[in-house]
Amino acid sequence: MSLFTSNRERRLWLWALAVVVAIYSTLGLARTLAGHLRTHGLLEALFMVSFLLVGAVILIYGLKARPGGLEIGVALGVAAVYILVFVPNRAYDERDLLFNVLAAVMAVAASMALSYARRWRFRNQPD
Q: Within a 10 A sphere around the Cβ of 71, how many other Cβ atoms?
């Protein structure tokens, strides 16, 4: 019995692992780079640009899926929670790692909530 359902899934998980290893192997460099960007007043601006780009991608993808009312409600709730934990001053230490774990858990929970909303909408549509 294979751990993965397909070669594509195995390949995607290996890429995800490579990205995680790359991110955590550069934590020391990230702290130095963040300090340099902060002293030049660029850290917050780059963070906002990145935040807006990710938001734009999520919005475009969400609109392509033609969400229903429940899905839009769940998405707005998820966006509100993300805005409440908005932390532009990253420390690149244990607290930052904890924040990353929290963000990952929130992303998975949001994905599950949206999937549930989609299934509920299609299950309850009149034929």
A: 20
The DSSP-derived string for the chain is --SSSSHHHHHHHHHHHHHHHHHHHTHHHHHHHHHHHHHTT-HHHHHHHHHHHHHHHHHHHHHHT---HHHHHHHHHHHHHHHHT---S---SHHHHHHHHHHHHHHHHHHHHHHHHHHHHHHTS--
Alpha carbons 96 and 100: distance in angstroms, whole number: 6
pLDDT digits (tens, 9 = 90+) for 33-88: 888 888 998 988 888 888 788 878 877 877 777 777 777 887 777 777 777 666 65
Q: How distant, in Å, are the alpha carbons of 5, 82, 121, 122 from that of 126?
A: 33, 34, 10, 9
pTM of the model: 0.48
Residue 25 identity: S
